[in-house]
């Protein structure tokens, strides 16, 4: 680890102009690239007190051994140069928007002499056209199966193709009409290429030409009384229409737009993008990336980085594919003349749509819009939809991003190897004698100190044990209805561990278990409910920082608990606070231990929030009926259960209220009049 003071630039030597900077390590490798409106101000922030830096930023400046910069003329140039350097150097500490999984795609090897269509996952390769991505592998295979009815091109591998070429007979697909069998000369290479061009044209969105051609051929076959051919063409037309129906129409005005949404937590961010072309959803992609601390971790900063990286990459890919297409189709252009050449030029797809719809405007939105417009060659409308269909679809994209991040975290914790590694890492980081096989976590939920509740969740072997979950109403808030987090943490800790010693004694030994199984009529113990907590946790987590941990430790001292490790998990930087330590424990940002602790804390938060909402709803419901004379707790409950909600009760007539069990006409009239006045 290098000392940042050893390579800190001399005071006043850094210009105040906009520019781009690079941090390098001892091996002269670029480990981070950043941009700044004011280089001096930005770079100076890296050389402050290390304890004030974000953990990832601190790791970066300690890894680096030198810093250098380049001055540019404007902030737009800084954005462009930053992207160029990130692509060139692939720095370790920069966010890279790489797919969290390899999406299935339909690929066409246009670079081969006899192209083939096939299912594909993985990085893009030269000489191959890709269509998608699709959400599921079966969607690719179903689409390809339907396409082969209309465009019977080769789908076999090179080995299969060469084998049947030497045998002189086609494969099964050739016999059933789903391949034109160029391997045996049923069609020429040129004719096969025309079929391939038709499929590529169709997948690029020119569906009207295919439908019109099939319809014309079907009608002509019917006029010629060739009904077998007409029926086959009818089925082909149905297959094409089915492919088109799979792409749902979301905007009736033929909108070309990309909708982008993020969902973030303290460690990571998930991004989802829906591609809408001609009013139809043509594709969907997603990424999960680790957030960095030295750049803007909020939504505007993340959006800015994503927009520049994603669309610059798309423009580069489009240029490469255009060059490949021009080379592959050169012979066809020469043969067919100017009309075909014009068709090829029209086939190029814009890498940037006319509209880009986002949740919030990115940082330096004007500069980003300039770059996107330059990539497109015309004005790009970058905006936040406020209402209507576009807003509704953007909300759907946001829900997809939220679910993507949740699934990403569950995948990490659900893996047995990852769970074992996480528990081992926790043991080492906290200096525990054994791995914490049982972990409990508590969280407080309230609104400005009212309706204070708490949750207690239990994880065993890294997995939630929901049968042992507990929820509490904070008693200290009963008087004035208000409480503070520190006092609430102390109360819940005390209530959880008040019978800690007795619970341990309640554990059945082997003899007791044998007696229990031998006795056919053993009655359930009155403390059976408490036995679920007879196994004390090895690790107890409170949601919060040093004050909350101090309050919980005071309870531990009061109750004489010394066999449970206590920590606090702060939300802001995911710091782990240990009782008596002035400095928190910082786990690596990509460690399995941190992901497990975060999931436990998030589960406690979710459980507390759901209980808080339930209690608040119950209090609000009760407050409406509390003042009704002659209406006790049981009848209030019966009323709400019968109608489902207070809102529906307000809409009920006197006769409908009187039908509730235990309600006569007089009481029903009293309730009806009371609700009218409120």
TrEMBL record:
Gene Ontology molecular function terms on file: DNA binding; excinuclease ABC activity
Domain UvrC family homology region profile per the UniProt entry, residue ranges: 259-556
Annotated Gene Ontology cellular component terms: cytoplasm; excinuclease repair complex
GIY-YIG domain segment(s): 16-95
Family label: Belongs to the UvrC family.
Record's subunit section: Interacts with UvrB in an incision complex.
Name of this protein: UvrABC system protein C
């Amino acid at each position: 680890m290098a000392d940042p003071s050893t390579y800190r630039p001399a005071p006043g030597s850094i210009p105040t102009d906009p520019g781009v900077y690079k941090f390098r390590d001892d091996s002269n490798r670029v480990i981070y690239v950043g941009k700044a409106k004011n280089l001096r101000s930005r770079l100076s922030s890296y050389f402050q007190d290390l304890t004030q830096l974000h953990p990832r930023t601190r790791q970066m400046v300690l890894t680096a051994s030198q810093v250098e910069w380049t001055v540019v003329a404007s902030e737009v140039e800084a954005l462009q140069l930053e992207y160029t350097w990130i692509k060139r150097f692939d720095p370790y500490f920069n966010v890279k928007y790489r797919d969290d999984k390899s999406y299935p795609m339909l690929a066409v090897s246009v670079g081969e002499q006899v192209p083939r269509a096939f299912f594909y996952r993985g990085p893009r390769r030269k000489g191959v056209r890709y269509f998608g991505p699709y959400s599921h592998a079966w969607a690719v295979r179903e689409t390809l199966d339907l396409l082969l009815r209309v465009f019977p091109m080769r789908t076999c591998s090179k080995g299969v193709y060469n084998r049947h070429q030497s045998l002189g007979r086609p494969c099964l697909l050739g016999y059933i009409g789903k391949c034109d069998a160029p391997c045996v000369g049923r069609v020429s290479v040129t004719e096969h290429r025309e079929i391939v061009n038709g499929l590529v044209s169709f997948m690029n969105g020119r569906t009207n030409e295919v439908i019109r051609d099939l319809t014309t051929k079907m009608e002509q076959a019917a006029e010629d009384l060739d009904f077998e051919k007409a029926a086959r063409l009818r089925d082909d037309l149905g297959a094409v229409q089915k492919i088109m129906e799979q792409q749902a129409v979301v905007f009736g005005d033929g909108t070309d737009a990309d909708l982008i949404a993020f969902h973030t937590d303290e460690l990571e961010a998930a991004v989802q993008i829906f591609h809408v072309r001609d009013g139809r959803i043509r594709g969907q992609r997603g990424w999960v990336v680790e957030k960095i601390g030295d750049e803007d971790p909020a939504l505007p900063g993340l959006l800015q980085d994503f927009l520049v990286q994603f669309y610059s990459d798309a423009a580069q890919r489009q240029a490469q594919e255009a060059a490949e297409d021009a080379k592959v189709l050169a012979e066809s252009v020469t043969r067919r003349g100017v009309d075909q050449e014009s068709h090829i030029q029209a086939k190029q797809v814009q890498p940037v749509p006319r509209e880009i719809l986002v949740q919030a405007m990115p940082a330096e939105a004007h500069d980003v819009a300039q770059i996107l417009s330059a990539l497109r060659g015309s004005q790009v409308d970058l905006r936040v939809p406020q209402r209507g269909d576009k807003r509704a679809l953007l909300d759907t994209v946001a829900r997809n991003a939220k679910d993507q991040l949740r699934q990403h975290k569950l995948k990490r914790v659900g893996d047995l190897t990852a769970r074992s590694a996480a528990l081992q890492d926790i043991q080492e980081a906290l200096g525990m004698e054994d791995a914490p096989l049982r972990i409990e976590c508590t969280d407080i939920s309230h609104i400005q100190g009212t309706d204070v509740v708490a949750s207690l969740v239990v994880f065993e072997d890294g997995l939630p044990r929901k049968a042992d979950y507990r929820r509490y109403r904070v008693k200290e808030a009963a008087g004035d209805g208000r409480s503070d987090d520190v006092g609430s943490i102390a109360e819940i800790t005390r209530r959880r561990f008040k019978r800690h010693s007795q619970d341990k004694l309640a554990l059945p030994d082997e003899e007791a278990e044998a007696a229990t199984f031998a006795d056919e009529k053993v009655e359930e113990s009155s403390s059976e409910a408490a036995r679920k907590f007879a196994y004390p946790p090895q690790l107890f987590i409170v949601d919060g920082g040093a004050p909350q941990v101090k309050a919980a430790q005071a309870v531990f001292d009061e109750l004489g608990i010394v066999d449970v490790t206590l920590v606090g998990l702060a939300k802001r930087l995911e710091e782990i606070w240990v009782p008596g330590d002035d400095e928190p424990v910082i786990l690596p940002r990509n460690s399995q231990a941190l992901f497990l602790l975060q999931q436990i804390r998030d589960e406690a938060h979710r459980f507390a929030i759901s209980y808080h909402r339930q209690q608040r709803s119950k209090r609000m419901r009760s407050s409406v009926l509390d003042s009704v004379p002659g209406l006790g707790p049981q009848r209030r409950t019966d009323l709400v259960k019968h109608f489902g909600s207070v809102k529906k009760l307000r809409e009920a007539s006197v006769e409908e209220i009187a039908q509730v069990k235990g309600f006569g006409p007089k009481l029903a009239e009293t309730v009806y009049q009371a609700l009218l006045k409120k």
